[in-house]
């Protein structure tokens, strides 16, 4: 029987991986649809648009990273799940929230910027680099979310 | 397989819009010494996308190539749009043209195939069958009702003016019905309301100049405008210099007043048509950069139509030996 604290910590891990993953899926889907449109008219642009489509996928990886650190700290991997107090569990849950929410929203909006970058690439292939830079700007906030979640998760003493 | 999403559609439009003729390319074509050279230069740009048959190319008829390109454009728009109903409003003029041609051709006992346009909302063969059999139940209720009314009148008397007016009225009623049902409040409503207001203004001035009866004016007034049809009906006897004040209503009041004042100075009705074209074009240009609306799709269609207009002017000018006046977007 696991404690409420441990369950809350699992909730934190699920929040980080789940929300950021959903955001990435939506963001990649938005960019992917734009990319499909471009490639259906000009298959030669596949290489250019693929980079832009992949960019909103990073939030999912960041979320997975935070979730992984949480479950590592809980001892899930080596089979000895720790019993956490309710406050320790809540601490993990709150620590995971920046990555979950930041990842969810930044990935969706990055997908929209990536789609615009894909339209830019379609019209001016020589400006693909600028489209990538503009899209990467949104990434900043996902990285900030990752950073704060990482610091908080590592700051929890068990 | 086409996907009904704005992102997919805009992706395709982004590529397709790179194939539009540039001002420089048009100027080069306009500088050609003969239509044959101009045609060669045009086809080198990829215009027509090889859809014109060899026979059409051999005939050297620019109109056949333009028609082929426009038909392809309209079909493509229908295929990629995420909202076929709203997009279809911009194709209604094609359907209206086809219906007018088919009805008039039937009255005259001739074939209209050469002047029909593909790429409308209603399948061309279906329209031919319908006009032939006088059975219109497969069309939207507004068109069905109007066409049944027309058939009823044609059985008594053939009046091409009334026929055209009823079909034009059906276009705007259909647009209003779709816009209201879809609760559209963006650029498409703005576009149709400006079009209807200008159209009604032109009809009013024409009615005044030709001393029409109120019943005749009523027939040509169309729905969908910001200004109610009653205002136009009540203005039939208003002197031209006071029309501006009377029609200064709705979201396009200022533009209408400007156009009417210009008309009062020049006494040239074409001024209002030109102002209307500019206004409609401006609405579409403003929506062209939207990333989650039909703006870029309709903008592409409009750009192709403007391009076609420019090509007709250029080839007409080369044939006639005078300087072509290109649309302002190519200036």
The gist of it:
The complex is a heterodimer of chains A (158) and B (331). Chain A is mainly α. Chain A is 82% helix and 0% strand.
What does this 3D model show about the protein?
The complex is a heterodimer of chains A (158) and B (331). Chain A is mainly α and 158 residues long. Chain A has a single domain, classed as lithium bound rotor ring of v- atpase (Four Helix Bundle (Hemerythrin (Met), subunit A), Up-down Bundle), CATH 1.20.120.610. Chain A is built from five helices and no strands. In chain A, α1 (4-41) packs antiparallel against α3 and α1 runs parallel beside α4 (86-123). The longest helix of chain A is centred in the first third of the chain and has 38 residues, at 4-41. The radius of gyration of chain A is 18 Å and the shape is elongated. Chain A starts with a helix and ends with a helix. With 331 residues, chain B is mainly α. The longest helix of chain B has 26 residues, at 295-320. The mean pLDDT of chain B is 89. The interface between A and B is medium-sized, with 20 and 16 residues.
Can you tag this structure with a few keywords?
heterodimer, A: 158 residues, mainly alpha, Four Helix Bundle (Hemerythrin (Met), subunit A), elongated, B: 331 residues, Topoisomerase I, Chain A, domain 4, V-type ATP synthase subunit C fold, 17 helices, 69% helix, 0% strand
Instruction: Give the largest chain-chain interface (CB within 8 Å).
Output: A-B, 20 and 16 residues
Mind telling me which CATH architecture of the domain at 6-82 and 294-330 in chain B this is?
Answer: Orthogonal Bundle
The poorly predicted ranges of chain A are: none
Radius of gyration of chain A: 18 Å
Which second-level CATH architecture of chain A applies? Up-down Bundle
List the uncertain runs of chain B.
none
What Rg of chain B is obtained from the alpha carbons, in whole angstroms? Answer: 21 Å
The CATH class assignment of chain A is Mainly Alpha
């Amino acid at each position: 029987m696991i404690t409420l604290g441990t369950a809350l910590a699992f909730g934190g891990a699920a929040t980080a991986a789940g929300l950021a993953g959903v955001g990435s899926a939506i963001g990649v889907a938005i960019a992917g649809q734009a990319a499909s449109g471009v490639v259906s008219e000009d298959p030669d642009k596949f290489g250019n648009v693929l980079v832009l489509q992949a960019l909103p996928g990073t939030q999912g990886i960041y979320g997975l990273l935070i979730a992984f650190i949480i479950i590592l700290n809980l001892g899930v991997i080596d089979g000895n799940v720790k019993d956490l107090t309710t406050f320790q569990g809540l601490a993990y849950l709150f620590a995971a929230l920046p990555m979950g929410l930041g990842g969810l929203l930044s990935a969706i909006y990055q997908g929209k910027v990536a789609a615009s970058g894909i339209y830019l690439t379609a019209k001016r292939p020589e400006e693909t680099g600028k489209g990538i830079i503009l899209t990467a700007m949104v990434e900043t906030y996902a990285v900030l979310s990752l950073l704060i979640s990482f610091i908080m998760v590592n700051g929890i003493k068990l | 397989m086409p996907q009904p999403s704005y992102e997919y559609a805009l992706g395709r439009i982004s590529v397709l819009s790179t194939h539009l003729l540039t001002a420089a390319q048009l100027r080069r074509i306009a500088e050609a010494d003969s239509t044959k050279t101009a045609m060669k230069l045009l086809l080198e740009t990829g215009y027509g996308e090889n859809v014109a048959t060899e026979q059409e190319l051999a005939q050297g008829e620019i109109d056949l190539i333009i028609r082929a390109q426009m038909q392809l454009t309209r079909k493509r728009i229908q295929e990629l749009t995420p909202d076929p109903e709203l997009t279809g409003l911009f194709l209604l003029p094609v359907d209206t043209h086809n219906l007018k041609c088919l009805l008039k051709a039937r009255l005259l006992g001739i074939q209209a195939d050469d002047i029909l346009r593909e790429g409308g909302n209603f399948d061309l063969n279906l329209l031919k069958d319908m006009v032939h059999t006088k059975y219109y139940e497969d069309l939207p209720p507004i068109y069905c009702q109007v066409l049944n009314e027309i058939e009823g009148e044609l059985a008594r008397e053939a009046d091409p003016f009334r026929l055209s007016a009823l079909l034009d009225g059906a276009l705007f009623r259909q647009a209003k019905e779709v816009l209201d049902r879809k609760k559209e409040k963006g650029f498409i409503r703005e576009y149709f309301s400006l079009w209807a207001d200008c159209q009604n203004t032109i009809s009013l001035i024409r009615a005044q100049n030709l001393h029409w009866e109120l019943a005749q004016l009523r027939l040509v007034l169309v729905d969908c405008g910001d200004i109610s049809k009653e205002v136009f009906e009540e203005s039939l006897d208003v002197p031209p210099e006071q029309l501006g004040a009377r029609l200064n209503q709705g979201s396009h009041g200022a533009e209408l007043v400007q156009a009417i004042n210009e008309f009062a100075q020049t006494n040239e009705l074409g001024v209002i048509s030109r102002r209307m074209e500019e206004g409609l074009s401006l609405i579409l240009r403003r929506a062209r950069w939207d990333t989650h609306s039909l703006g870029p799709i309709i903008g592409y269609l409009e750009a192709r139509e403007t391009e076609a207009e420019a090509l007709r002017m250029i080839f007409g000018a080369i044939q006639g030996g005078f300087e072509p006046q290109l649309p302002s977007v190519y200036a």
